[in-house]
């Protein structure tokens, strides 16, 4: 690909700190985003110059609060965000990309195959009964720019095991959504939503994550897991 189209890599050691020896995989994924991802409408052309900070690293740093060996369902995965960066940064994770649009599913499968990642890609919506039966009992459900918190909780919390976490990557609206939708989150079976910032020393601004634990209507029982970070 032409050098002018290459995604800018942040200066300094931050990508190495997040991806380690798999940095080259992250770079190749970023290249997919700014080439075929733009051509096929998965990200906008204006996002290409900031694909590392705004997309790849912004998602990967959420690994700080993901338990070891977690089973993750990435709802409304779109361009594979945050599921693919998490899978690159944390090869111990078991990631499923759930996406309803056929053209996006096709792109995701092509990219996952090219990167050689052990990721499952499924076409479907989290609220569909067949999807829930297939993927319920997840340790973590992730979502980025998918829906307001109340609707997101109604889709994602039923996929979690008891004690599992929904991690919703949000922007400036996070605090307002938590205040507005906390009651709806509880009705969906979640606990009190809380805001966690990830990526200190790596990304600026920090990644904002709304964390919701499933507290009732359990799936499979919680297993003993050690967390890498404090959520």
Automatic annotation (TrEMBL):
SUPFAM superfamilies: S-adenosyl-L-methionine-dependent methyltransferases (SSF53335)
Keywords, ordered alphabetically: Cytoplasm, Methyltransferase, rRNA processing, S-adenosyl-L-methionine, Transferase
Protein EC: 2.1.1.-
Chief location category: cytoplasm
Role, per record: Specifically methylates the N7 position of a guanine in 16S rRNA.
Family: Belongs to the methyltransferase superfamily. RNA methyltransferase RsmG family.
Protein name stated in the entry: Ribosomal RNA small subunit methyltransferase G
Source taxonomy: Bacteria, Bacillati, Actinomycetota, Actinomycetes, Pseudonocardiales
Gene it is expressed from: rsmG
